[in-house]
Amino acid sequence: NAVSKSFIPNRVVLFMPSSGGEERLLGMSPSMKGVSRLDNKAAVYVCKGGACLPPVTTAAELLRILDAVK
Fold first, then answer.
1. How far is CA 9 from CA 23, 48, 66, in A?
2. Residue 16 — very low, low, confident or very high, per pLDDT cuts 50/70/90?
3. SS3 labels along 41-65
4. pLDDT, tens digit, for every residue of 26-68?
């Protein structure tokens, strides 16, 4: 929900369900190889220009990063 509240042109949002889904995610974006959940929590990876920042697990952390990369 935090992502939908931020205007970021040309963004792509990929979602991995709480269990499974890795193969489907990699089929959509091979660059996502190696992404994972953190302590069984959803993890958000913000990537720009082919490089990804370390994952975050809270909406507050995500909004802080999204504001910085605009």
1. 27, 12, 12
2. low
3. ECCECCEECCEECCCECCHHHHHHH
4. 787 777 777 777 887 778 888 877 778 888 888 899 888 888 8
Selection from 67, 37, 43 nearest residue 55 by Cα: 43
Buried b (16+ CB within 10 A) or exposed e, 34-58: ebeeeeeeeebbbeeeeeeeebbee
Residue 15, pLDDT above cutoff 80 = no
Please give the model's pTM, rounded to 2 decimal places.
0.68
Residue with tokens 């605009």: 70
**CA 6/CA 33 separation, integer angstroms:** 26
Half-sphere exposure of 27 (CA within 13 A, CB side): 5
